[in-house]
């Protein structure tokens, strides 16, 4: 089941997503969240912090698992996803850092780290709500086109287009890591519920294929058609191709 909520713009998407997530956090006894990085969820995190400051939500009982992390970046590297999460959310709410897990991109044994991530998710009882963004090429997490739907958390090679897109955060393109640890497609699909946020015209093509196209490993996000409980909050620009159909 896929529900699509169309909103006007990025701000409206962030607002809706904040209501959606806060409702789950308040309702579930021990919420387990799957969290994402990138520009897309930044507005959502800002609003969640506001809601926390207004005492409308608390993260005391929340456990979280992040989707991905660059290989080779230390936790305190401003471009690491661990740093992003602390900077954009964790440092500003009452979540315990003991309850958050971002894959460790500098673990001595990366494969073992991938297994540990999946094991920790299982031990927590699985993910209640997985937040996702989407890459222009249809990637989710860092699962690039061609990634098997059966994949668990693993080390992945980044596509040139992804490196290019993410270079905006780095001083130069040479500094962008070429590999990452990413939750696998199967890991993501095992979540009880999925919330996908999409904003902007540059995602319109991928979103159209996800909604109207066939389910194929060539467009990793298309797998979401097979999930029983997906909500997509997308703005008008992101839906411009899909709604023209
Ligand atoms: N690994 C991240 C994804 O988790 C993210 O959803 C996507 C879109 O990023 P943005 O939201 O900045 O457009 O690409 C990045 O590479």
From TrEMBL:
Q: Does the keyword DNA damage apply?
A: no
The function of this protein is: Catalyzes the reversible isomerization-deamination of glucosamine 6-phosphate (GlcN6P) to form fructose 6-phosphate (Fru6P) and ammonium ion.
Which keywords label this protein? Carbohydrate metabolism, Hydrolase
Tell me the ranges covered by the Glucosamine/galactosamine-6-phosphate isomerase domain, including all copies.
11-227
Q: What class of enzyme is it?
A: hydrolase
Q: Look up the record and give one Gene Ontology term from the biological process aspect.
A: N-acetylneuraminate catabolic process
Q: Which domain of life is it from?
A: Bacteria
| Gene3D superfamilies tied to this protein | 3.40.50.1360
Any GO molecular function: identical protein binding
Name of the protein in question: Glucosamine-6-phosphate deaminase
Q: Which Pfam families match?
A: Glucosamine_iso
Q: Which HAMAP family match?
A: GlcN6P_deamin
Q: Which reaction does it catalyse?
A: alpha-D-glucosamine 6-phosphate + H2O = beta-D-fructose 6-phosphate + NH4(+)
Catalytic residues, per the record, are 68 (proton acceptor), 137 (for ring-opening step), 139 (proton acceptor), 144 (for ring-opening step)
Query: Looking at the keywords, is Lipoprotein present?
Result: no
* EC number(s) per entry: 3.5.99.6
* Pathway it works in: Amino-sugar metabolism; N-acetylneuraminate degradation; D-fructose 6-phosphate from N-acetylneuraminate: step 5/5
Q: Which family does it belong to?
A: Belongs to the glucosamine/galactosamine-6-phosphate isomerase family. NagB subfamily.
Task: Name any GO cellular component annotation.
Answer: cytoplasm
């Amino acid at each position: 089941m896929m529900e699509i909520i169309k909103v006007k713009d990025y701000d409206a998407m962030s607002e809706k997503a904040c209501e959606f997530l806060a409702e789950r956090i308040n309702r579930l006894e021990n919420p387990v969240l799957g969290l994402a990085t990138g520009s897309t969820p930044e507005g959502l995190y800002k609003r969640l912090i506001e809601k926390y400051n207004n005492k409308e939500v608390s993260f005391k009982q929340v456990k979280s698992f992040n989707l991905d992390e660059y290989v080779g970046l230390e936790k305190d590297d401003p471009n690491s996803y661990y740093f992003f999460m602390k900077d954009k959310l964790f440092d500003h709410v009452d979540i315990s850092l003991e309850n958050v897990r971002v894959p460790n991109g500098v673990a001595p044994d990366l494969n073992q780290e991938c297994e540990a991530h999946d094991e920790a998710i299982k031990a927590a009882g699985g993910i209640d709500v997985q937040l996702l963004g989407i890459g222009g090429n249809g990637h989710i997490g860092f699962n690039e086109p061609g990634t098997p739907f059966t994949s668990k958390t693993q080390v992945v090679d980044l596509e040139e287009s992804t490196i290019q897109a993410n270079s905006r955060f780095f001083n130069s393109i040479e500094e962008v890591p070429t590999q990452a640890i990413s939750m696998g497609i199967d890991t993501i699909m095992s979540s009880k519920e999925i919330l996908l946020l999409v904003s902007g015209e540059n995602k319109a093509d991928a979103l159209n294929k996800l909604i109207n196209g066939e389910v194929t490993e060539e467009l990793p996000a298309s797998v979401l058609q097979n999930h029983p409980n997906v909500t997509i909050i997308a703005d008008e620009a992101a839906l411009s191709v899909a709604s023209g159909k």
